[in-house]
Amino acid sequence: MLRSLHIRNYILIDSLDVSFPEGLIIITGQTGAGKSIILGAMSLLFGAKADASMVAAGEDSCVVEAEFDTGSTGHLTIRRVVNASGRSRSFINDCPVQVSALQSLADKLIDIHSQHKSILLTDRKFQLSVLDRFADDRNELMECRRLWGELSALESEIGAKRTRIDALKSDRDYILARLSQLEQAKLVPGEMESLEEEHKSLANAEQIMSALSRASELLSGTEESDFSVSASLKESQRSLEHISSCLPAASTLASRLDSARLEIDDVSSELDGLLSSINLSPRRLEEVEERMSLLYSLLRKFSCDSVEELIAVRDSYSQSVSGTQDLEEELAALERKSSEIKGKYRDACLSLSKKRHAAASKLSATIMDSLRFLELDGARFEVKVEDVQPGVSGSDGVAFLFAANGGVPEELSKVASGGELSRIMLSLKSVMAKFAVMPTLIFDEIDTGVSGSVADRMGRMICAMGKTMQVFSITHLPQVAAKGDVHYIVNKSTREDGRTISSLSRVDGEEREREIARLLSGSVITDAALANARELLKED
Q1: Contact 161, 337 (CB under 8 A)
Q2: What is the rounded distance in angstroms from the CA atom of residue 335 to the CA atom of residue 341?
Q3: Could you give the 3-state DSSP secondary structure of residue 393?
Q4: pTM attached to this predicted model
Q5: What is the residue-wise DSSP string for 30-84?
Q6: In this predicted model, what pLDDT tens digit does every residue of 82-111 receive, in sequence order?
Q7: What is the DSSP letter of 115?
Q8: pLDDT for residue 223 is more than 60
Q9: Collapsing DSSP states into helix, strand and coil, what is residue 246?
């Protein structure tokens, strides 16, 4: 509840410090006295746009501050300071905050119902929120919202996956064709170097064989020639061994010749091995050249410098194809999960819808009772729940239907007058106050367009709400004003310096009687009006 309000240099308000009790608080005053200015100051506290016109003439800044009793959480102080340039600063419990923080508190602390706000009754979202509060379906609604959020996130992810897969699939045929070429090539690391060596050998096979044969013949001899380097070394060795007994140095030379002969024999054996390995096959040469041609072609086509780079390209293509398959598997898993969540969401919507349908008939009957109390005896009011496109609030839409004088109810926006909308809104507020914890209510001339007994009954209804919560009623009707627990008057006066200021003061006793009488008779207060005012206050 609103405990106190402090205003400095705000438009016509020079200084205002007022404390408020619980219950029904009445605010009256002459037209133009400044009631709307006070409401504007309250709106500023909850994030309304600030501008330089709010600062009183000749002042550097204006300040609006309110203290709220929040129950278990204690006291909450909200302050807004606007300087002469129109810039503002916001504070909660003396801590600087963004304006958005004030806006987030608005619905929790105060509900300002101005005359034009009855138009909200024609808004489908507002109608749905009213029914949900009456149905006490917060848990079901939260579950719907949670599942819808999860479903929306899944659908977004599924969409992104599909887009990615489609992009990959558009290149898939191209990638598969190139991958097939590389896979068919059966690439082997280091293959090009081996082929180049083999090609040199095959291309020069005859020359190589001739050289190897000549070398072998010189070392080992031939059938046509008895000359052999190995045999000559053997013979020389034997000659030296014969004289080694008389010439010791010959023994050393003989040993060296033996070693040379053995080395020559090894070389000769290796020459024979090489000679036998030489391939004179033109077919193999052709095969090697074809293989090298294929590899050179692939290197050019894929802009690579080596077989190893070709292998890397092949592996990249393979991963891309495999990645598409993985994405398709991930997509399938997401779609399965989405289907599961959709099922849970449908169940949650069904549970929520059941509560809404059950509450709709009760709310309709309750509002009808209130409307009859407000002398709309022939009126019909119906809360209609209908199927709509599923969304964050489930799959239900709500329409408030009304008929002032019987007949088939139609949408409020089409048939209800301003006075009827005010009475319906008051009925809704009254109903919600009975079953839900509501913030402080401020009714700004909600009784406009009514008078007589209807005004009296509206006053009684507002008074009943004030028994369980704090309610402010700004009114011009004496029948309503007389129902208040406390009464404040907004006055306008002119200071000695010529500046016009507005003020708020509490009235009791005779002062309150005179204010009620003024509401009854106008600027000239008659004895009859005073007597009538006393009677109204006694009735209260």
Answers
A1: no
A2: 10
A3: coil
A4: 0.62
A5: -TTSSHHHHHHHHHHHTTPPP-GGGBPTT-SEEEEEEEEE-GGG-EEEEEEEEET
A6: 999 999 999 999 999 999 898 888 878 888
A7: G
A8: no
A9: coil
Contact call for residues 511 and 501 (beta carbons, < 8 A): no
Please give the Cα distance from 38 to 106 (Å, whole number).
Answer: 16
Q: Do residues 399 and 410 lie in contact, with contact meaning Cβ atoms separated by under 8 Å?
A: no
23 has pLDDT over 60? yes
Interstrand relation of 486-494 and 24-29 (parallel, antiparallel or unpaired) = parallel
301 residue type, one letter:
K
Whether the pLDDT of residue 321 is over 70: the answer is no
CB 498, CB 40: distance < 8 Å: no
CA distance 98 to 220: 104
| CATH T-level assignment (fold) for domain 1-114+439-507 | Rossmann fold (3.40.50)
| pLDDT tens string 233-276 | 787 888 888 887 788 888 888 888 888 888 888 887 877 777 67
Q: 298 or 437, which is more confident? A: 298
Q: Do 516 and 26 form a contact (C-beta atoms < 8 A)?
A: no
Of the pLDDT bands very low, low, confident and very high (cuts 50, 70, 90), residue 487 is very high
Q: Are 122 and 413 in contact (CB under 8 A)?
A: yes
Whether the CB-CB separation of 395 and 385 falls below 8 Å is answered with no
- Name beta bridge partners: 5: 18, 66
Quickly count: other Cβ atoms within 10 Å of residue 224's Cβ. 7
Q: How far apart are CA 179 and CA 187, in angstroms?
A: 12
**Two tokens, residue 472:** 């402010």
Pairing type for strands 440-444 and 471-474 reads parallel
Q: Is 428 exposed, middle or buried (0-12, 13-18, 19+ CB in 10 A)?
A: buried
Task: Single out the residue of 433, 507, 505, 466 nearest to residue 134, CA to CA.
Answer: 433
Say if residues 147 and 341 touch (Cβ distance below 8 Å). Answer: yes
Distance between CA 153 and CA 335 in Å, rounded? 12
Give the span between the Cα atoms of 15 and 17, in whole angstroms: 7
- Residue the block writes with tokens 């509560």: 355
Which segments of the chain belong to CATH 3.40.50.300?
Answer: 1-114+439-507
* CA–CA distance, 235 with 232 (Å, rounded to integer): 5
Q: How confident is the model at residue 521 (pLDDT cuts 50, 70, 90)?
A: confident
The alpha-helical segments, DSSP class H, found in 171-281 are 172-184, 191-203, 205-220, 229-242, 248-277
Q: Which residues pair with 158 in a beta bridge?
A: none
